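Database export, one record per block. Field names are fixed; values are copied verbatim from the stored entry.
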Amino acid sequence: MLANSSDLGQKGGAGQQQQQQQQQPGQAPQPQNGRSSFDREGSSGLQPPNGGANAASARNLSTSVMSFGPRGSSLNPAAGPGSFSSELRSQMMSSRAGSRLDVGSVYAGGVMDKVMEEAPDYASEQQILQLKDKLSREMKIKEGSENMLEALNVKKAKQTRDQRQRVEAELSASNLRIRELRRKISDTQQQRTRPATPTRTWTQDSSMSNGARSNQSPTKSNAGDSDIDESSESPSFALAELLQALEVEGMMPEYYVSRANQLVNLFKRHPAIKYDLVWSIFGMRMQMMLLSESREVVAAGYRVTRYAISDLASLRKIRDLNTDYLVVRSLNNYRKADVEREQALKFVRAFLDVKDGVKEISRAVVRTIVAVAEQGDDRRATVPAIDQNIDRLRPICIETLAEILVRDPPLLIASGGLGPLSDALSEGSYKASESLTAVFLFLLDTPQKRKYLQPSYGLDALFTAFTDPLGTNEILLKQSCRAVSVAMRSWSGIMTLSMYDFRPIRSLIYSMLLPSENVRETVLDLLFSILRIKPPAWATSFLAGRRLTTYGRVVNLKSGDTKEKPSPYIEDDGGEQNFVDHYTALILAILIKAGLLHSLLQIAQTEEDPMLKRKISLLLSEVLKLASRLLPPSWSAELQLLPELFKAATDFSNDEHFVASSIVYQISSVSKTLYRSAPSETMAGILPSSDSMVDLAALEGQPRSNNALVLDDTTFRQLLIDSGVLNSSNYAKWDWDIIMKIIAGPLQNGKRLEEAVRASKWMKRIMSFYRPFKYKFAEIKNTRNTQKYVQAGCALMHSLLQSNEGVNILADSKLVRQIAECLAQCDPTSGLTAQFPLFAKDRLTDTLCNGYFAMLGVLTGDPKGLMLLERWKMFNMMYHIVDLKQRPDLIKLLLTNFDYTLQGHHRVLLAKALTAGTKDIRIYATDALRKCTLRRPVATNALGDVSDSRWAIQLLSTQLYDPEIDVCATAVKILEKACNRKTYLEYVVECRPALDHLGEIGAPLLLRFLSTSIGYHYLDGLDYISNEMDDWFLGRNDSYVSVIEASLAKSFLVNADEQGQQSTMFDEAETGAEFHDNHVPPHFYRELTRTQEGCKLLRDKGHFDEFAATIRDHGMQAEDAELITKVKGCMWAVGNVGCMELGAPFLEASDVVEQIVRIAENHEVMSLRGTAFFVLGLISRSTHGLEILSENGWDASTTPLGNSLGYCIPTDLTKLLSLKPWDHIGASSITLPITQRTIREPPPAHASKPPKDNTEPQPLVTDEEVNARIVELLVDLGNTVLYKRAVIELQKLKQRKPSAFRSTDFFKYVMGLMEWNHYRLGVRRMVIDLFDKNVMRQIVFEESDDEDEDDSSEEGSDDDDDIISRRAQKKEQERQQFSQSKKSSKEEDEEGNSSGNSLNSDDNRTERQRSVSEPTEYLRNSMLPPPLNLGR
């Protein structure tokens, strides 16, 4: 749900009571019940416009009504029931047409300013506002200066030297001013939190006299700073007092609004009081507010009623107050009343927050929301829907309709709400198209809800933007792309889109053939996203036109923006199942079946844009690579041949064969480059990975040869010159690509390094650039573009450590010594201090000073580098920094950049931070151990890999006993992933960690122990296995369904390419991103089946047979949700047992695989089909399971050795994608319960009958005839041809027969017409405006028309004779009216002036005749509760 909008108002103003008291100087002021009108409360709630400006100086403070919103309070308070987006902030209109408050709607200073200025906190608030304003300006100056420096770096240094100095001076001054302003703001805010004088409670305000004035501060916060003492406050007394205060009549709107806000705050402070409300009293007060003439008072009434909602019984009591009619009237109001309409919509949305509250939402209300959600009269054919000035409540109405569709589909379908939702999807007028798409996908999942949608209706609207012949804008295309992507990543979506021979998907693919580059490029990007293809690092340069031959040396280097990520280990059984890749294989098969390759090849041969052509070649290469990896050989073998393209390329009689030949060459080049750039990703599990090659080189003891080291003297000297270092001392002029090439290559050779030092100043200038106290590297801003300097510095350190000459240079240079001095400035025990330390927190954040820690990390990875660090006592300083805990940012930088490959002080520092640091530091240090356990370390001794990670696993085992549960959870996650490698798992079991105190957090790690015999016997000795097995069988198996479905949904919807690559100082984004992988939650039965002992226990318990029987007996039922969940749990258990080779006997002994295949191909619930699909993929990982599936028409991709990868799809896709059209239930066949109907019975059908020219108009004599004619005209309003004439005639009837629009029964009949039929918003507004305002009061208070027959011109007379005589006069007038109307109609017939209008008979009467024949009827106010009169 969206966040709550801000409260509806600002500051209240004084009213117009002063003018009334000046008119009656002799009278005493009207006594008021409750507190005085000058009460000020701390609620930041709904506020009306301020009082009048002209009378400001003449106001009497004692009788004015004021309400102040809190200054400085939160603009986003806690969300109330039914709340929604803060974008829809209520707008307090300064004036409104037809309102009686126009005179006082604008406040222009005066008393209000004086009152606020005298408040104690006013000066401090004003000071904070001024300081924040100055801070905003300084931030802009700082940003502009940084941008200017970036621009000047491109130009020549000599030309911009002076300008650069001025900009740098201004930037330094701006940083100082920003720091000072922040300090002042903090000090001022701390002073405000200390109260200067005690303040009174709000209940003491009742003792104020008319002339007294309080010094109490009117500015109070919404919750925490309230003057109300909650411990001593009596909520019942406060509620009674506020309700009594709302009884007062004749006050200004802000009086009622302020009391309503106090009432809302009371409900917030004491939520339980809403259960004890006396609805007869509370409801009467709310009815009076909702019938007010002030929009702000009505909005406040809705707000109070919304906060009074507690349960379903309270909703029924609220509806008994006839609020349905009030809500319909408010929502039908004009845009100038948006404050009232917004609160009315929030009130309706609050019903959805109550369990089964949707059953109390009337169809009349939903019809009105549907009318607002439509474009209505604001729709213009020449302007795109997305650019139109639509109703600002429309997006929230659409979201409300979507929520109703999820909770109660029959209500929305019967109210005609499906059309606006579909239009919002196709037109793009609703920005969050993904959420709307998810609503349709939810309905399409089960047959019980699917029947409310037409088979070819709903998701097809998503593809309108791609196939519109008139073209669409780019924003709409992107919105549709996101929606299509969501639909393609769900089972209900992919099944529905595959109906009718993949018609929607084919239309998407064929839309690329349209002559629209915008559509073509958007669809290509969508295909990259759907297939989860991450473009290689060289894709941007390739699309820009660079040759592929230049990437041979680039692909082997680290990307400039990405860092080396630890590659996860592969389990001995082939690793856990990747369900995302399995689903991607299905989508790829569907796209190929729908003609993707044919369309891409056709576009590639005809496309003229070279960039788009290269993009298509890249997509073709990626598709072929995916097909070879994910699809079975029966699918991918023919695809790799590209027969159409080769046929065109070999047709030498046609000149077009040159184009086809070039495409073949380009695809071949791209494929080769893709293979070279990522062999381990391309052929995962098939070819040896790069890590294994690293291990092989390490075992041989010989470093791999680097061609860059071998350069002749001429080439080396030319590189030194080309780098630009010898020509200028300005680093901005240096060619850093060449510098990186020199550092990574020749400088690793001692001879070349010595030549660079002695023969030129090249090495001296490079080292000088990195020295901290030269303030060159240390003053560069920390941006993405400047990270190349940090990478060059790390490479320089690494290269110098490769030779003795380089180590000597490092030992003799001032670089390492000055870094140690900077570190000493942060060590309080060193005795070195600096006014502005180089490693200050702001410098580490804003500049490249944090790059020095990356260089120190390089030194920790080499024994010679460790000696250098010990020489300058750096480890001593680091121990002190970790001990004092004053600089957590420094500790994080150290722990992040250390290389823990070697044993040394840095490992001790890490262990110290793990145990002695603060909670955040301990969590961060535990996270730092992940790269030590999850990456593949280089084997350096006979013990193999384990020896390098024993220390890390021991530390992680110690972290399991940390007092903070978050630290333990982090350690469990890392150990769980480390257990993917069997040798690591055995060592973790040897540590014998006790996990009983962790409960559910430690369960996944204990499950990993089951996968080895050592772990099995260890857990069996603890009596863990039998208890856990019974627990899973009796309930945990079902709860696993929700866990893995949530994990799968997150994996499908989170696209790694869309998360952005933000480089942070501590690499927090990358660290957390590793937990958002496609990791599958461990299953007990899978881990149990890894060992012979576990299989024997499973066979003895007989659980597998129970699972198979449940699938066989209840697998095809689609009614009971609990049984569906149980079947899903049983299928996951069978799949996890079947994926193990030891589980083959269980599959042989039953026909469970055939039953799961039947569910996947024929079940009515789409999510259950998806579960069966993934389970079959698990089963296909075992050799025996793959054989059983092959017999049932399913095939999976395998390695050259015959091992299955688990990506199993049917050989005939139509078997899996076999959803048939269903029977649709229309709106006319839906019968709603009585609780969802305001008008219980539908009105009789009326046909639209246009009058004929020759027809004689019938005179309207009785009320029944007038009402019948009005009903006919209302029916005509739904006819676009007769609409204009019907409106004109209704206006005439309003003028000549006003009594017809004062009947409550007739009004209810008209409301029934609008509830049971569809009318546009403009028509609804006009119809409601036709009726008298008092009609709504009579309906709300349930007064009948019979009580209203007497004329109220002589109000207060109780003489029965006078009443009888007035009735007789009235009847006589009616008889005269009838005879006169007959006479006038005859005269008009003789003159032949009939025009088909039934009201033309009265056209010749004068106004006096009309007033005599149709006297105005007045309601007798004594029969009704008094109206909520407002002060003038």
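Remark 1: The longest helix spans residues 122-154.
Remark 2: The beta strands are 1194-1198, 1204-1210.
End of record.
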